[in-house]
Amino acid sequence: MAMLAVAGTAACGTTSPAQDSPATTAGPVVVTNCGLPLTVAAPPRRAVALEQNATEIMLSLGLADRMAGTSYQTDPVLPELRAGYEKVPVLAKLYPSREALRAANPDFVYSTYASAYASDAAGARKELGDLGVPAYLSPFSCEDPSAAKDEVTFDGIFAEIGDIATIFGVPDRGEQVVAAQRARLDAAKRNAGTAPDTSLLWYYSGTKTPYVAGHGGLPDTISSLLGARNAFTDAQQKWPAGNWEEIAQRNPDIIVLADLTRGGEGDSAASKIEFLRSNPVTAKLDAVVHNRFITVSGSSMDPSVRSVTALEQVSAGLRANAPTTR
């Protein structure tokens, strides 16, 4: 079977910025964020998104004109969001420092990763709060792991989009984005062509030490929703460090490749395939022998507006590549 690198054509237009509507000027908004109340006194006007997934959620909500900065781009921005993205100042190639963030004079800060609020990055959310700057963190990546959601779900992603829309006073835009994503999610689930007990290895990065998808992350959820099985769903971490001998023993039917653009060894999908074919252990895997690969962007394997696209791509890949017998 030919290798499948499914393009995100089904996504075209469905994550475009929602239509403009007047911002709500009502009183403070309080949301529960990572187990604690977060109060935003008024719809932000100078928000900073600290990495790409947060940036694209905001852009999908049509909030480019209320962004004072962005940072940490890991993939080319979605084409339908590029016009908005180009209006937003880039504060840093990776995370901005405390000084760079404060120089942007933000009135709201948002990230989908706790690492953005580390002491050597933008600084702790409490520090920002003490300065009068509310800082939101994705419920999937709380500083206190006990406060984080155990599993990444699409309902959780949609709730996060709703939180941001509510904070910015544009709940109608949030409803539009979520409705479009739910429709695509339902269609991809209906159209999945999954053979019984098809196993998927989600290969994120690394050649000497491969990092693969374990239990509770988005790949685990996508596998279940499409009737397949994550080959490492028994691993306790969401992204455990694996080894090739164990992967060979499990011999997955299909390998889902993260196509990362950061340029490291084994980052791109093409370099992953080259390695898998040249390594004596992995060259014998059924998925490698039969060219059963599905390629998705690296950022779509984390909770974001791209997550539905990843599910669509894997759904299409299962129809084309899933073995009919084991």
UniProtKB/TrEMBL annotation:
<dbReference type="InterPro" id="IPR002491">
    <property type="entry name" value="ABC_transptr_periplasmic_BD"/>
</dbReference>
<dbReference type="InterPro" id="IPR050902">
    <property type="entry name" value="ABC_Transporter_SBP"/>
</dbReference>
<feature type="domain" description="Fe/B12 periplasmic-binding">
    <location>
        <begin position="46"/>
        <end position="322"/>
    </location>
</feature>
<protein>
    <submittedName>
        <fullName>Iron complex transport system substrate-binding protein</fullName>
    </submittedName>
</protein>
<comment type="similarity">
    <text>Belongs to the bacterial solute-binding protein 8 family.</text>
</comment>
<dbReference type="Pfam" id="PF01497">
    <property type="entry name" value="Peripla_BP_2"/>
</dbReference>
